Amino acid sequence: MNRKLIISIVLCLAIPVLGLARKPDGEMPVRHYYRMLDSLRTGWNTWDTRSMFTQLYLPEAFSVKVALVDGDGIVADDLRAGNPRKDAAYVHPYDHVIDNSYSEVDATWHGVSVKLRSTSEGDRLIMLLTPKNDNSASSGKLRIKAEYAWPNFNHITGRDRYSHDEVSSFHFETYDKHVKMDGGIIGEGLSYDDGCYYCDAGSPVLIYTGKPLTVNEADNILKEKKLLFDGMCDQYGSNRELYRAIHSILSWDTIYDPGDNVVVTPVSRNWNLRWSMVPDYGGFVLFDWDTYFASFMFSKVSRELAYSNVVELTKSIDECGFVPKSRSDHDNLTSDCSQPPVGSMAVWNIYKRFGEKWLLELLYPRLLTWNKWWPEARQTDGLFCWGSDLVRIRLGERGSGSTNHAILESGLDNSSMYDEAKINPQTGQLNLQDVGLTSMYVMDCEYLALIAKELGHKKDARELEARASFFRKNIQRFWCEEDGMFYNINTDTGEFNRHTSATNFYVLLADAATKTQARRIVEEHLLNENEFWGEWVIPMSPKNDPAYKDQNYWRGRIWGPTNFLVYLGLRNYPDDTVRKALIDKSVKLMLKGWDAHGYIYENWNAITGEGGDRSNCDTFYHWGALMAFMALLEE
């Protein structure tokens, strides 16, 4: 046999298959994960992305769907916070416990206004709907469907639909009769027609599975469940409302996707349907840095969902060699560009919370692959530029090698920093060396080095620390002594690009500024009320940039992820009063929408502090909760 072939075979046998390396106890990390995932995909919860008024039972996917019917018989069944559809119902989410032990949500539409409170444990489900206003019988009804969520061999039937005594009951049953579940409905004007139950919206309606109970009994149970969640929040003292908001939005945004058979937490239900290949099924979309931030926040809420989100996103590296900008249902990946490298930061912090090394073993090889990809694909003369791969690696990929996709890789879609940027047709990189990206890459190296050390990969750790040191030193080239600021650099001219944003302060993340430089960028720019400081902070275009007046998406508005990353950088800054001021202002801004509407916005107007004033601002987007998460980390 050829000597080179023998060596190749030996090397291949010596390298463990990714995720299959055995632990000393004989358990493979990937088995740890799938066993955990199986435990997550069970029981009743608001898993169906299409409506917050649907309870879905896993793994069988039985569902109970509630819709509003107006006086003319028109139905609203897509009950989601901030639904952009014309004439959509107004939905106000409240508490939601991650295990579905309690959830509460209101909906108002065409004179029908109801509150839904739910609780579940195992096969037991209780849903109690009560009128919010004076819903007369003529103003509308509630429609209830007990059915299988997606086409399959399972079937659900009404018992003796033509019997008056039995019209209030339903029955769930799998095709093989392995799972059977009885349920019932109590409500005024209850009737059955064409597979649906109808009740008057002007009086309480109770839906349940398992042992029958009365409306009063259900109400008492729900009050007890709410008190238990209140007690959970009270553990956070003065931050109790912040924890309640973070816990609730993460719970409401958690859904199940039948195509990929995963429970994950996309940015919002509305984005899921917008990106889905088959919106009638619900679908999902996971964006790169959005999902890593959600996983980090879950470290305060749910171990299982912290793991599920971070694993489902990171495993996309297997196909692309990097974490793609987005992953959605039916294996749809944005495979020409990535997004900010915050994965190692999230994984390390999740590990520090739960201490299970198998998670590091499962993800470390992938994260290392992504870390090595950045210098190979996005480095120009020792500093990093955002980019888009010139060659399509997936059939049907559009926008590859375009300036637009290169800017989208930054996550700052229309930031004024990139108004004059162009993609280099030879390299696939923007002609702009980026302060924020280079600083985040240094942070990624440092966190990944910590993971390598924890796993005993000493050589990798040394190499990662060396990479961090190399690029940290190069960050000094961004420094402008005259202005006291770190600026992006135009690679065509070598000149500074004086368009700035919150990302210019990421040098603090990399600990790349001298003490004098750090003081100057904070005092002369961050705290400058003619630039970034004021009642509402931190605007993504400073006040002295013409784009500030636009208040349109990344042009002038305030964002949770950028505030959060600046906060992490300020932990390296000696004056903690600045960090605390940023936290206080961020918390105040987030609570405006949460207290008034139960909303946590995608972004906020830096002039007025409003969140829902633009059509391109999602009203219930989980990374807005980062504005409060930094306060919990201070504890």
Q: How many individual β-strands? A: 27
Largest sheet: 8 strands, antiparallel
Low-confidence runs: 1-18, 158-165
Rg over CA atoms, rounded to whole Å, is 26 Å
How far apart the termini lie comes to: 63 Å
Mean pLDDT comes to: 91
> What percent of residues are in strands?
15-25%
SS field, number of helical segments: 17
The outline comes out as globular
The helix content, as a percent range, equals: 25-40%
The chain-level structural class is alpha+beta
The side-by-side strand order for the widest beta sheet comes to 5-6-7-8-15-12-11-10
Concise summary:
With 635 residues, the chain is of the alpha+beta class.
Q: How would you sum up this structure, described in words?
A:
With 635 residues, the protein is α+β, with helices and mostly antiparallel strands. The chain is built from 17 helices and 27 strands. The strands form seven sheets. It has an eight-stranded antiparallel β-sheet. Strands 1, 2, 3, 4, 9, 13 and 14 form a seven-stranded antiparallel β-sheet that branches. Helix 3 (215-234) crosses helix 4. The protein is globular and about 75 Å long. The relative contact order is 0.08.
